[in-house]
């Protein structure tokens, strides 16, 4: 773990610098790198402190803290989810995060995480699909074409070899936006008029809608044998996207059951409905895809370890680069016991 400097300055990555860092690395390379960091941390899952995110719910959205530690570093993310924000010209999701040294308790990184969360969410989806999707998958249906859709599409292309994206959103303008953004990525993009049209011939079905309601984006009769479902829109109590009949026919894989049972698609099911933790598949302790007619479902709600991995990655990548500046965030008196004296001397200078 990198300890703080003698002046106790904290590296800060702003939105502008995060965008510069992404373009410096390349979006698809960064998605692959993030997936590798997340996979490495999932392989040491049992070392981490784990707790469901601390959530403050309101009628219009949720504000959450997502903390974890591996014993050497501590990280947390602040994130909100307010679906109504789009109609007011605001982001549905905003976030920032902090990484700290466990030995001293000093923060060693403060960074924007709105863009970084979009990247880590997509990287996690593609990492899961690498283990759970049918071999040779080439087509993904992207249902919900909002802020996450391009990142999901590019991650599946970079990590799983997807070459065709079939888009659907109830708002045609969102589909037009996504199609335009993906136009020069090498993906074949098909705009669809209905969700039924979007899933035709798709091996991976990704649902990512924002409305805070128990919706049915995919009905039971829409989902045939052999597909992988990447369900990322259901991420808080009272917000789901899939008909319960789909869940009864699927082998379900989750990040952290105590959180997913409250926030994910499986909140519709009994508390003992069987699920497999994704880290067990990655380490070989449990089976992932086992047959050509199997329906696999990654019920993804996002978990703190994924954010921790993203924070580790950014910390490593900004070293010796101009993509950050240092914040005078920590009091640094000459005598650690004399904060008051430091304050008084500042008034005299």
UniProtKB/TrEMBL annotation:
Q: Which Gene3D superfamilies match?
A: NAD(P)-binding Rossmann-like Domain, ornithine cyclodeaminase, domain 1
**InterPro entries in the record, alphabetically?**
NAD(P)-bd_dom_sf, ODC_Mu_crystall, ODC_N
What Pfam families does this protein map onto?
Answer: OCD_Mu_crystall (PF02423)
Q: Which PANTHER family match?
A: KETIMINE REDUCTASE MU-CRYSTALLIN (PTHR13812)
Which protein are we looking at? Ornithine cyclodeaminase
Species name: Shimia litoralis
């Amino acid at each position: 773990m990198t300890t703080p400097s003698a002046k106790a300055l904290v590296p800060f990555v702003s939105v502008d610098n995060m965008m510069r860092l992404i373009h410096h690395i390349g979006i698809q390379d960064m998605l692959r790198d993030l997936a590798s960091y997340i996979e490495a941390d999932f392989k040491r899952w049992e070392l981490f402190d784990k707790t469901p995110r601390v959530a403050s719910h309101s009628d219009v959205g949720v504000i959450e803290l997502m903390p974890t530690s591996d014993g050497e570093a501590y990280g947390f993310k602040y994130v909100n989810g307010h679906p109504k924000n789009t109609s007011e010209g605001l982001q549905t999701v905003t976030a920032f995060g902090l990484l700290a040294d466990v030995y001293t308790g000093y923060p060693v990184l403060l960074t924007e995480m709105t863009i970084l969360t979009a990247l880590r969410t997509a990287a996690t989806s593609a990492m899961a699909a690498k283990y759970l999707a049918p071999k040779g998958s080439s087509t993904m249906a992207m249902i919900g074409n909002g802020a996450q859709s391009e990142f999901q599409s590019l991650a599946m292309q970079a990590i799983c070899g997807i070459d065709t994206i079939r888009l659907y959103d109830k708002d045609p303008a969102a589909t037009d936006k996504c199609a335009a953004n993906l136009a020069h990525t090498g993906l074949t993009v098909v705009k669809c008029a209905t969700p039924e049209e979007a899933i035709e011939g798709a091996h991976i079905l990704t649902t990512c809608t924002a409305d805070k309601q128990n919706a049915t984006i995919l009905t039971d009769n829409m989902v045939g044998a052999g597909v992988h479902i990447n369900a990322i829109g259901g991420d808080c109590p009272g917000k789901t996207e899939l008909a319960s009949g789909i869940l009864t026919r699927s082998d379900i894989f989750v990040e952290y059951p105590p959180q997913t049972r409250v926030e994910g698609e499986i909140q519709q099911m009994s508390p003992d409905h069987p699920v497999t933790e994704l880290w067990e598949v990655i380490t070989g302790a449990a089976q992932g895809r086992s047959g050509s007619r199997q329906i696999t479902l990654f019920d993804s709600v996002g978990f703190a370890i994924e954010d921790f991995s993203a924070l580790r990655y950014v910390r490593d990548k900004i070293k010796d680069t101009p993509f950050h500046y240092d914040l005078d965030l920590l009091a640094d008196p000459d005598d650690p016991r004399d904060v008051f004296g430091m304050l008084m001397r500042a008034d005299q200078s």
